[in-house]
Amino acid sequence: MSIQKIAKLAGVSVATVSRVLNNSDSVKSKNRERVLEAIRESNYQPNLLARQLRTSRSSMILVMVSNIANPFCADVVKGIEEEAEMNGYRILLCNSGSDIERSKSSLGLLSGKMVDGIITMDAFSRLPDLSTMIGQTPWVQCAEYADAGDVSCVGINDTDASEFAIRHLLERGCKRVALINHDLSYKYAQLRERGYKSVLSQQGNDFEAIEYASELSFHAGRSAMENLLRAPLKPDAVFAVSDTLAAGAMRAIDDAGMKVPQDIAVIGFDGTELAEMVSPQLTTIEQPSRDIGRHAVSLLLRKIDNPEAPAERLMMGWRFIARASA
Amino acid sequence: MSIQKIAKLAGVSVATVSRVLNNSDSVKSKNRERVLEAIRESNYQPNLLARQLRTSRSSMILVMVSNIANPFCADVVKGIEEEAEMNGYRILLCNSGSDIERSKSSLGLLSGKMVDGIITMDAFSRLPDLSTMIGQTPWVQCAEYADAGDVSCVGINDTDASEFAIRHLLERGCKRVALINHDLSYKYAQLRERGYKSVLSQQGNDFEAIEYASELSFHAGRSAMENLLRAPLKPDAVFAVSDTLAAGAMRAIDDAGMKVPQDIAVIGFDGTELAEMVSPQLTTIEQPSRDIGRHAVSLLLRKIDNPEAPAERLMMGWRFIARASA
DNA sequence: CTGAAAGCGCTTACAG
DNA sequence: CTGAAAGCGCTTACAG
C-alpha cells in the first residue's frame, strides 16, 4: 500500500492524497472524502521512513541512560516519554550500561538522521567524539551537567543538596560520616562530593571516607558499604548518592549485625519509591524526577525547532525527606 | 553529506560508494581506498532513513512494557537490548502504562515500517486492532501469553510456580492464604490464580481472598494489602504476583503494626534484586528475566528472517528462593 | 483547489 | 570490477 495506490483508488493525484494526509491546504471536500474512503477501505498507513526522509524530521529522540533498572532513571524516562508523546515524539532508549562502545554506536543514530535530538543521563566525559558532534546537534543533559560545549541541561543544585544532607547527619550527632559516591566521571558526583567535603571542613571534622560505586545498583552499594565497614575506624553515618546504593548499604549494615540508624545512620538520594520500601524507611533527598524528564524534552524541542537557540541551564528544586534511617 | 558527494570526491560512481559502505562485492582496492579516504575526510555518515526505505528493513524492534519502573520489566528489557545489540538491532521503548491510546499509537510504528517487529509484555487482550495485524507481523509475547493468533511467546510455567508457592505456605502452617494478583486481562495472572485456587481446593482449604492490583507497583501492592487487612478475617499469608507488589504488601503489614512472617508470611514473584532489599528479605519465585528477554529477541529475529516460520512457545525454568519472609 | 515533476539519500539488478 | 538508471514512498514548490 502506497500513496500511489490510494491516489489511483480515489481518482486524484498523489499530491492531493498527501495533502489530506497532512490535512494541510484546502482540499475540496468531495476529494477529501474520496481519499479518506480509499484510505479506509485499503487500510492504508503512511510509510514513516519515506516521510521522514523527505522532511528530514524523524520525530524521535534518543535517550541514553546508564542503567534503566535504577528507579530514578526509570522515573525520569517516564517523564521524558510523557512530554515527548504530548509533542508527537517517540523515544529510542539506549541503556548504555556505561559501555563506551554501545554509546558510540547509539550516537550513530543521530548522525544517521534517525533521531532529531538526544537526551543523556550518562556522564558527558564518557561519551566519545562529543566535541565533533555537539553544537550541530540538539542535545540536553538530564540530571547531569556538561562543562564544555553548547549543551542544555536540567537538574538540581547538587552541592546544596549534598551539604544539607551532611549537615543533617552532623546535627544529629554523627561524628564519622562516609560517602558512597558514583564514579567521578559524572559531574554530579563531583558536585556532591564537593558538598560533602565543604561541610566537613567547615565544621572542622576531619573524618573522611569515600567509596566509589561503579554503577548505581544495590550490589554496588552493598560492596561499597562492606569496604567501609572493613576500615579500622567505622563510620557512624553514610550518605549515598542514590537510593539504590543506600539500599545496598543498608543490607550490608544489616548483614554485619548492626542497626540503622542506631549504629549507622543512612541517607539516600533521589526520593524514589524504593526509599519507602526498605526498612527502616530511608531518609533521602527528593529530586523532581518526572519534571526533570519533562523539562529535558521541552528544552530539547525548543532547540530542535530553533537550532540557533542558546543552551539553557535549568535548575529545579529539591526536597529533604526525613524518615527513620537518619 | 550524501553518497553523491563522496562519489564525486572519490571520483567514482555512487554505486561503488554504496558497495564499499556495505562491503559487498569486490571493489578494486584502489577505489575502495579512495572512497574510504573521502568518507574519512568529509566525516560522512550514511543516512539510515534512506537506507531503510530502500531496503525496507529498519533493524529496529518495538518493545512495549506496561511499567518500566518495575524491576522485572527493566531486567527483561536489558536482556532484550543485549541480544538485539548482538544482532545489530536497536530497540524502541514504549512504556504504555497500560494506556490503550499510547499502545495504539505505538503500533503505528509497525505499520509505518519504522520497526521490523514487536516484543510485548503487555496484556494481549488490551492491545487494540490486533487481529488485523498479527500474522502479517513478527511478534513475540514476553513473560505473557497469547491464546489466539500466530504469536510466539516465551515465559515460564506460571501455574506450576504459583502452586509451588501456595503449597509452601500451607506446609508452613498458614491457614488463610490471600492472593494479590495483577488484573485478569493478563494471561499470566489467570494462570497464577488458577494455581492458587487449585492447591487450595485440593487441600480442602476454603479460605480465599484475592485483590487485583491495577499495576505492578509498590503503591498498588500496599493498597491491595490494606484492603485485605480490612476484612474481618485477616489472612496469615499472602502471595503477590510480583516482588514490587509484595514490597507494598510488606509496607502495609508493617504500618498495621504486624510482623512478617510471624503474623503474615509473604511470597513474591520475579526474583528481582528488590527481594533482597526489603526487610525481612523476600521469599520469591525467580524468573530468568534476562534470558527471557534474550530468547524473545531470538524468536523475533527468526520470524523476521523467515516470515513463514510457525509461532513458537518457549518455556523457561523457574526457581523458588526461600528467604525470611515466608 | 489540483497535478506533474523534482528530489530526499540510498541500494540493486542490469549491462558492459 | 564499475556505472547509469530505476525506484523505495513520501512532500512540496511551481504552474495552472
Automatic annotation (TrEMBL), chains A, B:
Q: Name one Pfam family in it.
A: Peripla_BP_3
- Keywords associated with the record: DNA-binding, Transcription, Transcription regulation
Domain HTH lacI-type: residue ranges: 1-55
Q: Name one GO molecular function term.
A: DNA binding
Matches recorded under InterPro entries: HTH_LacI, LacI/GalR-like_sensor
Does this UniProt record's set of keywords contain Transcription regulation?
A: yes
Protein name (record) = LacI family DNA-binding transcriptional regulator
Give the species.
Rahnella ecdela
